[in-house]
Design a protein that fits this description.
Shape: elongated
Order of helices and strands: EHHEEEEEEEEH
Largest sheet: 5 strands, mixed
Strand order of the largest sheet: 5-8-9-7-6
Number of strands: 9
Distance between the termini: 14 Å
Radius of gyration: 20 Å
Length: about 160
């Protein structure tokens, strides 16, 4: 591995969570069904058709919209979000505990970036897995990932080096 190459790199996209895709497709199918049942006549029928296509187009666009990028490199974790979000850098020298955990017990979770709540900082775009980091001050970072074991191992390797 080269010196400039990160130990871990993962990109999380906003529209690639299967639960959210399913919801958007059901809404689009409802709109197309309402268009068909209304007899394809009138202004309301056309509105259902336009909204259905709008949902599908928006869903495709969201599948390519980067929510955040996780990089483990040089004894730190860098979480870089979209547009106006500030980059978050976690120094691994201050981390005392790393563990693989499920992100949440809920079926559908909202995507979040740098959400501070009850002594934890959350980063999530999709999936069921996460890595939880605890620093010296007791603050917990929960980072949602699709590659949980790889992220956990790369963090532990960077902490040892």
């Amino acid at each position: 591995m080269e010196e400039n190459e990160p130990a871990f790199l993962e990109k999380q996209y906003l529209g690639r969570d299967y639960g959210r895709i399913s919801i958007r497709l059901v809404l689009a199918l409802f709109c197309f069904g309402a268009y068909y049942l209304s007899g394809s006549q009138g202004q309301n029928a056309e509105l259902f058709l336009v909204v259905g296509f709008g949902i599908l187009i928006g869903s495709v666009v969201m599948m390519f919209l980067l929510h955040y990028k996780t990089t483990v490199n040089n004894k730190s974790i860098v979480l870089d979000g979209i547009w106006t979000t500030k980059m978050v850098k976690i120094d691994l020298n201050s981390i005392i505990k790393v563990e693989a955990v499920p992100y949440s017990s809920y079926i559908i979770n909202n995507p979040v970036y740098n959400l501070h709540q009850k002594g934890t900082v959350r980063f999530y775009a999709g999936g069921k897995d996460a890595v939880m980091l605890t620093d010296r001050d007791g603050l917990k970072y929960i980072i949602g990932t699709h590659r949980q074991a790889e992220l956990e191992q790369s963090i532990k390797r960077e902490m040892k080096n």
